[in-house]
Amino acid sequence: MASRDDKLDPVWDNMDRSMGQLFMMGFDGTTVTPQIRALIEKHHLGSVLLTAKNLKSAEQTAALVYELQKIAHDAGHPVPLAIALDQENGGVNSLFDEIYIRQFPSAMGLAATGSTELAYEVGKATAQELSSIGVNWILGPVLDVLTNVRNQPLGVRASGDDPQEVSMYGVAFMKGYQEAGLVTCGKHFPSYGNLEFLGSALDVPVITDSLEQLTMSALVPFRNAIVQGLDAMMVGGCAMSSEGMNVMHACLSDRVVDDLLRSDLGFNGVVVSECLEMEALSHNIGVRGGTVMAVKAGCDAILLCRSFSVQQEAINGLKLGVDNGMISEKRIYESLRRILAMKAKSTSWEKALNPPGLGLLSTLQPSHTSLSTKAYNSSITVVRDKNHFIPLSNILEPEEELLLLTPLVKPLPASAQSRELSDHAVMASPEPAVWERSASVMSGESVFRELGRSLARQRSGRVLHTSYTANGVRPVHEDLISRAGAVIILTADANRNLYQNGFTKHISMICNMQESNGGEKREKPLIVVSVSSPYDFAMDPSIGTYVCTYDFTETALTALVKVLYGEINPSGALPGTISQSQKLHLSRQHWLVENWNEERDANSLDGLIEACVDGGSGHRSELANTTSNSFLLHNPDIDEAHFVVRNSSTKALYGFCSTYFFRSTGTGVIGSLFVDPARRKLSIGHSLHNRAIRTLLQREGIKRFQLGSRLPNIFLGIPSGSSVEKKRLRQWFANMGWNTALSRPVCSMAIRNLSTWSAPEGLARSLAGAGVEFDMVFGWDYAENILDHIRTNTRQGVAEMYRLALADQKNCGIIRAKRPEDGAVLGSVIIYNDHSALAEFVPSLRDTHETTGGISSPVISPSVGEYSTLLQGLILLGVRQLKAQGCNTCILDHIDGDGNFDSLSAIGFHVLHSFEEVTCDAATWTMVPPS
């Protein structure tokens, strides 16, 4: 017999059994059919593809999956079936269950949130739901780059048109799936992002990009996912036509699979073919020959979606290929080893026959519902709102009517209503449906009808809803526009449904030509909402208010209603290069920056802080418990100047920046810079930053600049919460001239529940043998000794912190570490309670709602060899002292990250907020543009 891997169990000596593992097949129906049973029992089928036509509910799916696995088990399969499913979210979900399965945004919708962490959590939640009902293989993530966004079928299934961004989100989804125990399958290699369609179903779509072009763009996400541990890859059935690469079907070509994917990109996982039942492939080559070609090209799993006769033809074709020597047994075993290795990651008979089922789904439901709401709320994108039509309360009086115009499109399969929708239920004529605020939800209506009801429930006025078609603007539409106080138009892929584009532009023209009762021209407020591809009007400035939801599931449109009525601030951003070009365009705006005036601006700053804390992706938890007083030091040793961008009419602040000049060290500091989340990307931050730099440059004795301040202790540097937000902020400051590559990690830390805390025994013993004496002193009597010691530390704010502590001996103390021989101070640290002057500048102390103490500014003499031990000793004694004083929480308000995080974690501290502190020489700033 042909050679095979020695590690394979002898059970795989049966060639028919081994070849069966190389197929993934689907079937029609929601119960086990005789055909799929025969494929499993007689032909040893290794993988089953389930699609929407098989699935009615979570309970039915769990029963179906279990029965499939039980059939395989009873038939003597050595390993369970791989049960595969498409569950991309948005509009592409094979399984929908209103009770147990949550709806999440599409890939592009999640990219619009700006959070790869959110994408990871959604991927994990999706996979947990599938895993609970027995599915073990998810056909995702989508890794295609939309290099031609206006002419492609993928739409919001892809993350966007920027290769690096697609990589980030694709890997995040992949990691989430894997964390929940599913194996993954990237698609659609080598990319469906720029296909050319020749018109006939018998014509294969073509990739015309050269291999060099693909390498620079479309292949980037595939390459990165492979490096990060992608389990399987689906290779498409498209053609490739360029110089040096002419291929009729990618999945049948060894140049694509063995050379490009395996050799060039280094992929060693399972390769899945496109469905060989696709008309162009089966017509041009035939399924029997196509199966042999796919295996010879390097595919490990051959996909055949539904036709039993075609599936049998494929199985016979592979057997014939082996029998006549076209395919070696060695080649079969190569694929078998990859498939068995993949299955071992995600399943076993114990797991396959005992899935958690509906019990786990019930447990997951509350957290997944909350995650779904968060994801959708964060994805809604207001691309433009030139005349501030959002929220609707800005433009509509209670007695005015709101007109909703929606296209006639089929609801997405993920929609609950779509399951009951009939052709009769979609309104064929443009006569309006009118709902009062109290209208109840009626079953059997489309998702757009439910949107109309949701809009009506939010206001006391009436909502008119009618549809539009390729027949264009009719007189009834014009009458309704004239009657309404404002108009909302929904579009769904208007680039491919051109009647929507023409209708929307026509309505826009009508709205611009409306007249008031007095005969004067009055623009009728118009809001255009793209509920699928965001590219419909992204680059069309004639549409003044443009919103994107990325899909039109009920959950997405619920979030849309919240945005339209101002319940949530829209925080989504168009993914990819369009968003970047918008940022470049908007950055040309220059705002008037004014000096902070405490009497005039204090209340407005409190309002801005609240907006930032509550503002979606602009969320800044570091500002929690901060007030306008938190930024005002009133210290004679520190020059402070703060700036605002404000609306002089409404008194509202749009942005704030605080600066400090510490004369003792010659350091100019930007201590905070934040902008109203509803007004991001308008260059307010640029204007404030430039004004701050110019002001600090004028300080006499300026030596260096610093981002982040320990006094006041709000932002210690660039916040580094989520990886996406950290990257965005670092890039923003880098663009402003800061060398973020030279940043240093700093953080604030805390210990809670001091009443039950105890010091690590080993640490206490090591301190006893350190040969150092410790004491605690209060007040100015000890100032000379301590201030001489801390002069060895030139960091910003340290001297000022110690002076504040020395001046407040009732609420502050200083722990010293001394050399026994001569009493020389080797180290020191400040401890203080929540009544001290220091506490006013440390908002974290007010975040605990219980008795809290603080530790600040440890300084260790440069001559000390055991820096880490002494640091731990000082802070340990500080924690003990605060515990003795009755504190239940201890805040360490600033600590350097150079090896200190782990040593303090051993004491019991955990990180509250992380930052990247950035410093540079004053000479770095040679020219600052005007604000």
From TrEMBL:
Residue stretches making up the N-acetyltransferase domain: 639-713
CDD domains reported in the protein's UniProt record: NAT_SF
GO molecular function: acyltransferase activity, transferring groups other than amino-acyl groups; hydrolase activity, hydrolyzing O-glycosyl compounds
Superkingdom field: Eukaryota
Naturally occurring in which organism (per UniProt): Xylona heveae (strain CBS 132557 / TC161)
Matches recorded under Pfam families: Acetyltransf_1, Glyco_hydro_3
PANTHER family reported in the protein's UniProt record: BETA-HEXOSAMINIDASE-RELATED (PTHR30480), PUTATIVE (AFU_ORTHOLOGUE AFUA_8G04060)-RELATED (PTHR30480:SF8)
UniProt keyword terms in alphabetical order: Glycoprotein, Glycosidase, Hydrolase
Designated name of the protein: Glycoside hydrolase family 3 protein
Domain Glycoside hydrolase family 3 N-terminal: 16-341
GO biological process: carbohydrate metabolic process; peptidoglycan turnover
UniProt KW Hydrolase keyword: yes
Family: Belongs to the glycosyl hydrolase 3 family.
